[in-house]
Write a structure and sequence with these properties.
Layout (H helix, E strand, L loop, with lengths): L2 H13 L2 H8 L3 H15 L4 E4 L2 E4 L1 H30 L3 E6 L1 H6 L1 H11 L4 E6 L2 H10 L4 E7 L7 E5 L3 E5 L12 H4 L4 E4 L16 E4 L2 H9 L4 E4 L6 H5 L1 E3 L9 E7 L6 H29 L4
Parallel strand pairs: 3-4, 3-5, 8-9, 8-10
Antiparallel strand pairs: 1-2, 5-12, 6-12, 7-10, 7-11
Helix pairs in contact: 1-2, 1-3, 1-4, 2-3, 6-11
Length: 302
């Protein structure tokens, strides 16, 4: 629907006449009349009843008013957003993150980023590493925080460790602290994320009890409830939660597994690059501080 015709239609409504709308828009009366006729042809209905020299809105005309006003407002909003994006050299940031990071680390980092850049539109996807990497390669994400054993791409930068360890409720699984092998671990009810094709699983076919989830947040809830032992990350746990759990410290997770920031291949403006760097640095700093806090608590505060 032609926006200029809608604007002229609204001016006719506001001024009450074609001539008044012409004066407002600095157009001749025939030009306004021609615009109105074309709009009526476009919507397929008369918008005014012509009675003498006056104009009365038809039901179709009255129905068009709120729609026309909304379209004009949306057009103006779009124009302002484009102008702001040109002036700032950025508009939005499309971020992806694995569930654990998206739930326990990114919220405060994104909140800080939003306070620094109030006009920035934040769009967050949470998912598994492989899905996020595919989105980055397709260009539908600008930046993804993923867990991977070694750099997932030449553009990736390591921002923290992904030190998964097995935890269990201290009241039920006190012996977990002495477990040194996965064979021993398999004798306990295991809580784990559903393994993808080709990935190993600690849950054997004749296990008496187990739980399979879709994310680490669910693993955490089930472990805290005492329903089994499962892999968690130190930054997922508060001091009180960590105190209620026991950890299989002697079972080592893949030391090469880390949290990586993977940017899109898209060329960035300098302001965009600055925003990306700021978020990556913020996430890295928060991961570092939380890891240090967890280590201090684990060593008894020494």
């Amino acid at each position: 629907m032609n926006l200029e015709r809608l604007e002229l239609f609204l001016k006719i409504v506001e001024t009450g006449s074609v001539s008044g709308a012409g004066r407002e828009a600095n157009l001749t009366q025939p030009a306004v009349s021609r615009s109105l006729k074309l709009l009526e042809e476009e919507v397929g209905a008369d918008l005014f009843d012509r009675q003498g020299r006056g104009l009365l809105l038809t039901p179709a005309g009255r129905a068009l008013i709120p729609c026309a006003r909304q379209l004009v407002r949306d057009s103006e909003r779009a124009r302002l957003q484009v102008q702001r994006a040109v002036a700032d050299a950025y508009f939005d940031l499309r971020v992806g993150a694995v569930d654990s990071l998206g739930t326990h680390v990114l919220p405060s980092c994104l909140s800080w980023l939003k306070s620094e850049h109030p006009d920035l539109k934040l769009k967050l996807w949470m998912g598994r590493t492989q899905t996020l990497l595919e989105r980055v390669e397709r260009g539908t994400l600008d930046l993804a925080f993923v867990a991977y054993s070694g750099p997932p791409s030449e553009r990736a930068a390591r921002v923290g460790t992904y030190g998964l360890k097995y935890y269990g409720a201290r009241a039920r699984f006190a012996t977990l602290a002495t477990v040194t092998s996965e064979l021993e671990l398999k004798q306990l009810p295991v809580v784990e994320i559903e393994a993808l094709p080709g990935q190993p699983s600690l849950i054997h076919a004749d296990a008496d009890a187990f739980a399979v989830t879709q994310n680490l947040s669910a693993v955490k809830a089930l472990v805290l409830a005492g329903l089994g032992v499962g892999q968690l990350l130190p930054f997922m746990l508060s001091d009180a939660e960590r105190a209620a759990l026991v950890c299989a410290e002697q079972l080592q997770h893949d030391p090469d597994c880390g949290i990586y920031a993977v940017p899109s291949f898209r060329a960035l403006s300098e302001p965009e690059a600055k925003i990306h760097r700021a978020l990556i640095e913020r996430v890295s700093a928060q991961l570092g501080s939380q890891t240090s806090s967890a280590k201090t608590l684990a060593s008894g505060g020494r």
